[in-house]
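During the reporting period the student researcher (J.K.) took over the structure-prediction task from the postdoctoral fellow and processed the backlog of single-chain submissions. One of the processed entries is reproduced below for the supervisory committee.
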Amino acid sequence: MEKLIQFPNMLSSIGDGAGRLEARARVRFNVAQALVQGRVAFHYQPVVRAANTRFPAFYEMLARVRMPNGQLLAAGSFLPMVADGEIGRAIDRLALATALRELARDPGLRLSVNISPLSMGDEEWLALLAAAARGGSGVLGRLIIEITEDAAIGHADQTIDFMNHVRRTGCAFALDDFGAGATGFRHFRDFRFDLVKIDGAFTQGVQRSPDSQVLVECLMTAARHFEMVTVAERVEAPADADWLRARGVDCFQGYLFGRPAARPEMPAEGDKDSRAAG
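J.K. obtained the following structure tokens:
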């Protein structure tokens, strides 16, 4: 079981201006140093089938930074501050290279990797994918590329061009954090994602929240109309899982069914510690 730490909450406590810029620079320096020293790795969280939660549909790869003292930093601690620059591109390339290696090693494995808007036009990222396609191993048929809703809507034309190009290699696409952003249903139709991952802000505690129930059912109706597989994120309570299953959600992701781990594995259902990770 991984033990995660967060960077000190510098950005929320020091206010705006030079102090905030300095804090961001310090985070970027730490991550850049970790990349150079080989201390950026990926953990794997299972996404399980709602109909049979002992069988994973796939695993999502989540970035981790190992600090010099051995502690692990969660992706949410650093990715928002590096995703819009070269460090973010380097992490995306490393994620793709790692995924391709793991998929080639295990023919029964299916993985998803996240990509930032900058990496959609990154020649090195695309070259890695093209090399795998030329290799003819078929691994790209087991690769899912996750794009957040905000990134997809905010860069709609780029996203559509990227998806049209990459889909020819056999990859599938997942819309991450569905419902968290300003969903544009015109673009939603044009994207034609294969999967949608309903944001955990709606699914966590859904069994006791009538407001969340209405929103989840609305999101699921849209996904079903476009024949997209639905994944409920951050499922951490049996009652929520039961409610979502009864409404037809296809897959679950959350601590109830498996924590991120250094190797793809299936921890026992019912893990009591329900703190979110990403």
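The committee noted the following: Confidence is low (pLDDT under 50) at residues 8-14, 269-278.
J.K. will present the remaining backlog at the next meeting.
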